[in-house]
UniProtKB/TrEMBL annotation:
Residues 229-440 form the Peptidase M1 membrane alanine aminopeptidase domain. It catalyses: Release of an N-terminal amino acid, Xaa-|-Yaa- from a peptide, amide or arylamide. Xaa is preferably Ala, but may be most amino acids including Pro (slow action). When a terminal hydrophobic residue is followed by a prolyl residue, the two may be released as an intact Xaa-Pro dipeptide. It comes from Rheinheimera lutimaris. Pfam families: DUF3458, DUF3458_C, Peptidase_M1, Peptidase_M1_N. This is Aminopeptidase N. Keywords: Aminopeptidase, Hydrolase, Metal-binding, Metalloprotease, Protease, Zinc. GO terms for biological process: proteolysis. Residues 26-190 form the Aminopeptidase N-like N-terminal domain.
């Protein structure tokens, strides 16, 4: 079974009980103050279970008073502990008034009500509302909210909450008093409040049925110009959801607020999204193409939650993928339609093959619908989100786009205003399409990465192609026994005469044979086109055929994937002791040269075809990760390619035209290919310094600036040191750009990285209290610097251990996210294993360790 978490309160999915009371309306009044905010909550409750006590959740609160139907309770009429307020004898229907006090300023966890700089803001998902007031803090209690916010008028021009504004005035004491009402019943995790001073950008959106919606984006004073892109992205998302899924916005106002202190990317609070400023603010000088892409996709994501998450929400937190997997799928489809579907898919596949496969193979393995949870914050994972999205994508593949859209429409119509389960979702899909999804449902309960072994046999006399498929899911730490899953396997047959055929094979059993008749010559089979299922493919395709697929498949993702498979094999051969020169076929070099000479229409695809798999992708292919072998092989191949392809690289680099920065798909693709050329050229030594300097100096945008910095860091340390100093100097006042600087410094593959990190810790903009700053330094170090993180003297592991230990007392949620790279210690060689395990053990021994870190360390060591 799972880890020994018996000393702490682990919850199981099967223990779900409906609430004993429901709360139909809530009136909240906030009297804001940095250290003593008073919250008055007046709730209407109705009993749903005879005799049961009312147990309200609450943490880090000072209780000032409790009243039932207006009558104050004395202390012996309720029970209070660190986690709850319990009332025993209550009528069937009553009004409960609870007054509490809290200190936003000392709230470093950034859950509940906290201060982000001068701005008051809230974060309630998953269980943050209990830090604001005593409440039934669970997603299946849906209430109508009325909110009053009171704060000094001068200092707080904007007092925001969910829904529509009812009134605003300034009282005799000089306080601004604003009232809000959200007509849609919602769970408390969607509650939000913001108070501060901002620049406000506004827009209008007319919905497909002609309703006028006012869009408002709030950013730091002076940053208005950097909000324009996000605001336009919001309009695109709103239009797209109408066109693709016929879903329209439902309130008269939609607000987005950017704050610099935020644990995650953004939050879909009803009508009042709160965003990490990193996913809102952008201009050419400070944001990369990748940043622009992320902003559009996250703006879309949070907007799409308005239906998939808010109008229909989760019954309990085990159902998280119900809203997150589905909404990630929707944002991926949106991004694909706004830009390049191939590139979007490649990026999604990379994430699954690195982080998600690693999660399945490690101590935190869980199904997309987890079974057991100690700290819910630990389950906002790539499995729940991104594998969850893969599961939805498979449904669409199996049901067809129209069938899937019909299922989604039925689901939303049937459950509007309800808190439901993943089973309810599947039921709607099944009812709308009359397809049997019982085997498919296993994707929700089974963890682990299926391995799909495939082979082909061609019989010329009968003109028949036989395809043999077998699936096997290895045991995971949480679940020893696995069953066969329903797998949509998209294939393409490539014939010598240039013709092609597409087929969808639907696998339902452990082993299956598919017979394709009337195949008159033996084709090359492209397996798992578009990564049609999140599995590890085992196919014995020889080098020549892989290169043929890379050159000829219709699907760009399949072409890229063939190159990835090819390189994986070459890296394995190098690790086995072959010289890189000996395993690199001439055919490959000339193919890469021809791509450089005649790039694809999609230049970004060309860049991907020319890129080697990264360290993490390769690492996932080994039972025991050969750290040094992978690093040496990658360096060797890149160096060799840089030399062999120098001329075509240089020509391609110079041929790509330079124009003033603009973010669009074609321009971003051009920069991507140019950066790739620069990366290789930096390795070829000749003139590289000059080229890098010039690339850096002539850049009119952050994408090119970062490309020059990253390329020089890998190959030309002296140049890198010069450029990074200039960069740090130039952007010393811009926190979001300094994050890029921190991340670069921390990804330095040389030993000087430790001094670099020390220096950055003393930077005026660095703060242990700001998750963006901490992550910029330490996620980059532990996830993008395998050379130094995996040092054989343990210095890298110790650095991460110290940060996690320190951060646990400040922001446990962020600490627990940072620890991830240490958890998979069993995947490394004995020396590294021992070092990593010892670091985890020291963390486990910290007295008063948070549930967040405890759960992970404990699962990992057990
Ligand atoms: N629900 C948010 C999203 O996916 C993520 C989030 C979770 C934000 C928990 C904050 C806290 O859009
Ligand atoms: Zn989400």
């Amino acid at each position: 079974m799972t880890a020994n978490t018996n000393t702490r309160n682990v919850k199981s999915r099967h223990d779900y009980q409906p609430p004993a009371f429901i709360i139909s309306t809530v009136k909240l009044c906030f009297e804001l103050d940095n250290t003593a905010t008073k919250v008055t909550s007046v709730m209407q409750l109705q009993r749903r279970q005879a005799g049961a006590p009312l147990k309200l959740d609450g943490q880090h609160l000072q209780l000032l008073s409790v009243a039932v139907n207006g009558k104050q309770l004395s202390e012996h009429e309720y029970r209070l502990d660190d986690e709850s307020l319990t009332l025993d004898t209550l009528p069937d229907s009553f009004e409960l008034t609870v007054v509490t006090q809290l200190s936003p300023q000392t709230n470093t966890a950034l859950e509940g009500l906290y201060l982000a700089g001068q701005t008051f803001c809230t974060q309630c998902e998953a269980e943050g509302f209990r830090r604001i007031s005593y409440f039934l803090d669970r997603p299946d209690v849906l209430a109508e909210y009325f909110v009053t916010i009171i704060a000094p008028a001068e200092q707080y021009p904007f007092l925001l909450s969910n829904g529509n504004k009812l009134s605003e005035h300034i009282d005799s004491a000089g306080n601004r008093v604003v009232q809000w009402h959200d007509p849609f019943a919602k769970p408390c995790y969607l509650f939000a409040l913001v108070a501060g001073d901002f620049d406000r950008l506004t827009e209008r959106f007319v919905t497909q049925s002609g309703r006028d919606v006012s869009l408002e984006l709030y950013v730091d004073k002076g940053a208005a110009a950097k909000g324009e892109f996000a605001l336009q992205a919001l309009k695109r998302a709103m239009r797209w959801d109408e066109q693709r899924f016929n879903l329209e916005y439902d309130l008269d106002i939609y607000m987005v607020v950017a704050v610099d202190f935020f644990n995650m990317g953004a939050m879909e609070n009803k009508g009042l999204n709160i965003f990490n400023s990193k996913y809102v603010l952008a201009d050419a000088g400070t944001a990369t193409d990748k940043d622009y892409f992320n902003i559009e996709s996250i703006i879309g994501h949070e907007y799409f939650h308005n239906w998939t998450g808010n109008r229909v929400t989760c019954r309990d937190w085990f159902q998280l993928s119900l809203k997150e997997g589905l909404t990630v799928f929707r944002d991926q489809e949106f991004s694909a339609d706004m830009g390049s579907p191939t590139l979007c898919r490649i990026d999604a596949v990379k994430l699954i093959r690195t982080a998600q496969f690693a999660e399945d193979a490690g101590p935190m393995a869980h199904p997309i619908r987890p079974e057991q949870v100690l700290e819910m914050n630990n389950f906002y994972t790539v499995t729940v989100y991104d594998k969850g999205a893969e599961v939805i994508r498979m449904l669409q593949t199996l049901l067809g786009r129209n069938g899937f859209a019909a299922g989604l429409a039925l689901y939303l119509q049937r459950h509007d205003g309800q808190a439901v389960t993943c089973d309810d979702f599947l039921q709607a899909m099944q009812d709308a399409t009359a397809k049997d999804l019982s085997r498919f449902a296993l994707w929700y309960s089974q963890s682990g990465t299926p391995e799909l072994a495939v082979s082909q046999h061609y019989d010329a006399p009968s003109a028949q192609l036989t395809l043999n498929l077998s699936q096997h899911t290895p045991a995971t730490t949480d679940q020893p026994i696995k069953q066969a899953l329903m797998l949509p396997v998209q294939i393409e047959l490539l014939f010598a005469d240039g013709t092609k055929q597409q087929h969808l094979l639907v696998m339902q059993e452990a082993s299956q044979q598919f017979l394709l008749p009337e195949i008159h010559t033996e084709p090359v089979v492209v397996w798992l086109e578009h990564f049609s299922a999140p599995v590890k493919l085992k196919a014995d395709i020889d080098d020549r055929h892989l290169l043929f697929i890379a050159g000829n498949a219709s699907d760009g993702v399949a072409r890229w994937d063939a190159m990835q498979q090819f390189w994986s094999r070459k890296v394995a051969q190098a690790i086995a002791g072959n010289a890189v020169e000996d395993v690199l076929p001439e055919a490959l070099v000339s193919m890469m040269a021809s791509w450089l000479q005649q790039p694809e229409p999609d230049l970004a695809l060309t860049a991907e075809l020319l890129s080697l798999p990264d360290f993490d992708t390769l690492a996932e292919q080994y039972q025991q990760v050969p750290v040094d072998g992978i690093l040496a092989a990658l360096a060797g191949f890149k160096q060799l390619l840089a030399m062999r392809l120098r001329e075509p690289l240089l020509q391609c680099y110079q041929r790509l035209p330079l124009s003033a920065y603009h973010y669009d798909q074609a321009a971003a693709a051009q920069r991507r290919l140019r950066s790739l050329c620069l990366h290789y050229l930096a390795l070829s030594a000749v003139d590289a310094t000059e080229l890098l300097q010039q690339h850096y100096q002539s850049a009119d945008n952050m994408t090119d600036t970062m490309a020059a910095l990253a390329a020089s860091q890998q190959a030309q340390p002296a140049t890198f040191n010069l450029l990074i100093d200039d960069f740090a100097q130039r952007w010393q006042h811009d926190a979001l750009v300094m994050d890029k600087c921190f991340a670069l410094v921390a990804s330095d593959p040389a030993e000087q990285v430790f001094d670099g990190i020390e220096t950055m810790l003393r930077h005026p903009l660095f703060s242990w209290h700001n998750p963006n700053r901490v992550r910029a330094l330490y996620s980059a170090f532990s996830m993008r610097n395998p050379q130094q993180f995996h040092r054989l003297d343990g210095k890298g592991y110790a650095a991460l251990e110290q940060v996690v230990g320190k951060l646990d007392g400040i922001n446990a949620q962020v600490a627990a996210r940072l620890i991830t790279p240490l958890l998979s210690w069993r995947r490394f060689d004995p020396v590294r294993q021992q070092l990593m395990q010892a670091a985890l053990q020291r963390l486990a021994n910290i007295p008063g360790l948070s549930n967040d870190v405890y759960e992970k360390v404990n699962r990992s060591l057990t």
